[in-house]
Amino acid sequence: NGTDGARAPKVSCEERNTTGIERFVLQILNVSQDLMEFLNPNSSDCTLVLFYTPWCRFSASLAPHFNSLPRAFPTLRFLALDASQHSSLSTRFGTVAVPNILLFQGAKPMARFNHTDRTLETLKDFIFNQTGIEAKGDVSVTEEDWEGPLPSVLTKGIDWLLLFSVLFLASFVMYATVRTESIRWLIPGQEHEHQE
């Protein structure tokens, strides 16, 4: 009755058939695609999903490492989605910060990558510890991984929701300043004067 010290995987993944697939790449979902279309709730295959934003420097530094994962684990699927364009999914799966990596079995999130050191090696260790699937040994981050498909260069953009929020707040403050007498009851410590 001996133990070999090896832990059983936490997630039992059905490895996909790779026959006929020549190139293993990460798939990035566009704004019109829904993650649930890519996850089969009736199967036990596993998918690693990255929630990122193109203007986050941590997402950009993780990109080449995540781009190389499909070559290291050809029997698993890898998806990435812009969390700012898929905010309902971010809310649904509790991804309040980016980058955020979830391991799905079928359509159910099974594990979250919670390490600050986001390298190919730590990602390989995470996948092995969760699934028991070993990475191909000859895979490393290449120059091609720095180029895409996930961008490793920050993009500049306008966060329209933040801009709208600031404008709304500024207009409310201006309105409140102009209408101080009519909203006096909002200011703490101001008592209503009652005429009797």
Distinctive features:
TXNDC15, 6 helices, alpha/beta, disordered N terminus, 32% helix, Thioredoxin_domain, five-stranded mixed β-sheet, transmembrane, 196 residues, Glutaredoxin
- Flag low-confidence runs: 1-5
Count the DSSP helices.
Answer: 6
What is the ordering of alpha helices and beta strands? EHEHEHEEHHH
Derived structural class: alpha/beta
Taken from the alpha-carbon principal axes, the silhouette is: elongated
Largest sheet: 5 strands, mixed
The percent range for strand residues is 5-15%
CATH superfamily of the domain at 27-147: Glutaredoxin
Q: Give, in spatial order, the strands making up the sheet with the most strands.
A: 1-3-2-4-5
Radius of gyration: 24 Å
Overall mean confidence score, pLDDT: 81
The total strand number stands at: 5
Helix proportion range: 25-40%
Description:
- Strand 4 and strand 5 (108-113) form a beta hairpin.
- The protein is 32% helix and 14% strand.
- The chain has a domain at 27-147: Glutaredoxin (3-Layer(aba) Sandwich), CATH 3.40.30.
- It is elongated, with a radius of gyration of 24 Å.
- The protein has a five-stranded mixed beta sheet with strand order 1-3-2-4-5, with helices on one face.
- By secondary structure, it is of the alpha/beta class.
- It is built from six helices and five strands.
